[in-house]
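Supplementary Methods S3. Input chains for the assembly prediction are listed below.
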Amino acid sequence: MNELVRFALTAYYPRVDDLPGLAELGVDEKIQRLRRESTLLFWTGIVAASVAFQIAPLLTIRKPLLASWLSAEDLDQHAHKMATHPGYLVRQVTFLIKLVGGMFWGQSAEIRAFLDLTPYPEDPGTRRVEAFVPRQGPLPGGAPDKLLSLGKKERDRGRDKDRGKGLQA
Amino acid sequence: MSTASPTAAKQHTGTAHGHHATFTSFAQAGLETEVDFVVVGSGAGGAAAAVVLARAGYRVAIVEAGPWRAPEDYPWTTYGTIRDLFPDWGSLVTQSRALWPIVQASCVGGSTVINSAIVVRTPGDVFTRWEREYGIDGRALEKRVWEHQDRIERELSATVVPPDARGLLNTLAMDAAEKLGWSSHYMVRYAKDCEGAGQCLQGCRKGRKQSTNVNYIPEVLERGGYVLSTAPVKDLLFDGRRVIGVTGRFQDPETRKFGARFTVRARKAVFVAASATQSPILLAKSGIKSRALGTLFRAHPGTGVFGVYDDPVDQNIGATQGWASTAFRQDPGLKLETLAIPPEMVAGRLPGGGAELIRRFREYRHVAMWVAAVRAESVGTVKPSLFGGPVVKYQLDEADMRKLRKGLSMVTRMHFEAGAREVIPGIFGLPYKIGPDEIHLIDEGPTDPRCYVAILSHLFGGCPMSADPRQGVVDERGKVHGYEGLYVADASAIPTTIGVNPQHTIMALASVWAENLVS
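Predicted C-alpha cells for the full assembly:
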C-alpha cells in the first residue's frame, strides 16, 4: 500500500534540475508517518487516489497500461494531464495526491532553502493536560530587516495614520 | 510519534487556578460535576459567552471537543496544522457538485487559533435585514452588539496591522487599490505587537494573536471555572423540555478512541457554541425538534489568484492577511483581501503535475495571492450523516458564481496595477497565466463551481435565529424555541451572511445573549 502511494506522490514531485524530487526527501518515512497518524478516511482517500493514478493512463495519454509501466516521460505527461483533466472527479482525486505530496515536498528543508527560508523545526505535537495560561510578555525575536525597511517606507508615505478605518464596513 | 506525549513542552509560563480535565489514559476515572452554566465549544462564541458569565460570578464549564494547545505547542508546518488543529484531518467538504473544503479548527480556542483574527464591526444593514426577514428587534440588538464590540476591541487589543509587520503582500495591494481609487484599508486584528511572522494559519507561536485560548478561557479558569478538553459532547441531557447538562466521553486525540465518560450538569442553562457545522448536529442527535434545524446554512466562499512579479514578494514574510477592501460588500457583494499561504500549500494549489508543476513552483518567491470572498445568498443544509458527523450540502448558484468571478477579475486587475507581469488565475479552462490584456477571460470565465478551487471559511446558519419557530431554531435571545435552558451562541445562529469577517459579530452576539441571563 505504501509503495502504491509513494509511486503516485513522487510522480507529482520529481527532481527538476537543482530542485530535488520527493523521492530524495525521505518520502518513505513520511508516508509511514501519515499512515500512522491520519484518520482511516484520509488514508483510504490517499490509497484510492493512488489506485486511480495507476489505472488512469488510458484516460490521459491513451495508453492501456498501468502508470508504473510507463516510461519516465509518459509518466510525467500522465501526472500533468491528470491534474488538468476535464473530468472534475479526476482532478479532485489528483488534488488529494498533490495536497499530501505538496506538504511533504514543500516543507522539506531542501525546498525551503531554495526559497531562502529557514528549515521548519519539528512540530511539537504536544498538548496541555494542566490548566495553562500563556503570559503575554515580549517574546524573543522581532520583525526581520526586510519588514522593518518596508515599514519605514510605509511611515514615510503616511500609511501609519490609519486608526482603524477597517473596523467599519 | 511526535504526538505521543500529552505533556507540556518547555514551560516558561504560569498555570491557571482552575479545573482542566482532559484525556490522559484509558484507565482514567469518569468525571461528574455540576456548574451554573455549561458552554459547549471554546471558539469565538463559546469563549465570549463563558467569560461574561464567569465575570458575573457564575461557575462555568467549557466543554471542548479538541485538545488544549498553547502557542508553544502549535505546529510549524501545514502537515502539523492539519494533524493537530483540524478536525478529522480537514476532511469536511461540501457534498454538492463541487467538493469545497470547509476550514475549521478543533482545539481549545476553536477557529480563533487558525484564523487571521480580523475585526470588523457588524454592519448596521445586517440588523435591518434580520428585523425585516426574521422578526428580530434589530435596533435594540444593534446597540448592544456594538457596545460589546467596543469592549472586546479594548480587551483583545484590536489594532491596525503595524507598518513593520505588513510585508509586500499587503503593501502591494494597498498600492494597487490607491491607483484604482478603491477604498481599502490595512486590517484591524485582535493582535498585540504583531511581528509579521506569517504564521496565522498554523496558530501564532509568538502568542501575539489574541485567540480565545490565550485570554478569555484562562480567565474563566482563573475565576473558578472548568475546562474539559478532548471532550466531544455526545448528548444533551433533558428533564422534560428543559436541558440540564451534557454528556460524552473523553477522546484520545491520537488514536481517536474513546475513554472515560464525563457528565456536566447545568443548574441554569447550556450554551451550545460548537460551530455552524457541529451545533446543528449536536441538537439534532440530541432529539431537538425544529423544522428549521440544519437549514439556512450559508457562507462566504472564497478563492484567489496569484500575481507574478519581477522582484521577489516573499508573501510569507509579513502578516498572513493585512489588507482588505469592504467597499464592494453591497455591490456586487464581495470582500477583497490578501492571503499568504505557505510554500507547501502553493505546491499543491498550482495547476499541473510532474516536472511542469515543479517548474511553475520555482516562481514561488515572486507570487502574491489575493482573494475574493463572496457575500453569497445561496443557502444549504447541515444534517447528521449515518456515522454522526455533519453532511454539508451547499453550492453557489449562478448569481453568486458571477460574483466570485467578478471578484477574481477585480483582484487580477489590482495585480496588474501593482506591477505584476502575469497572473495565475487557477480557473479550470483558462490559460495557466494571463497578461494584462486578458482579464476579460476571467470576466467571461465559467460559472461552474467545479472549475474553481475555493474554500468555505466563514460559515453561518444551521440553527438560525428568527422570532418565528417555523423559520428559526433560536429566538433573538439565542434561546432554542420550545425548550428551556438551551441556548445557541455561535455562527450557526446567524441567519444571513454579513459580508465581513464574522468573528467580531459572533463574539458580540454571544456576549449579549450571555448577558441576558446575567441580568
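Chain A touches chain B through 87 residues (CB under 8 Å). The first helix of chain A runs from residue 2 to 12.
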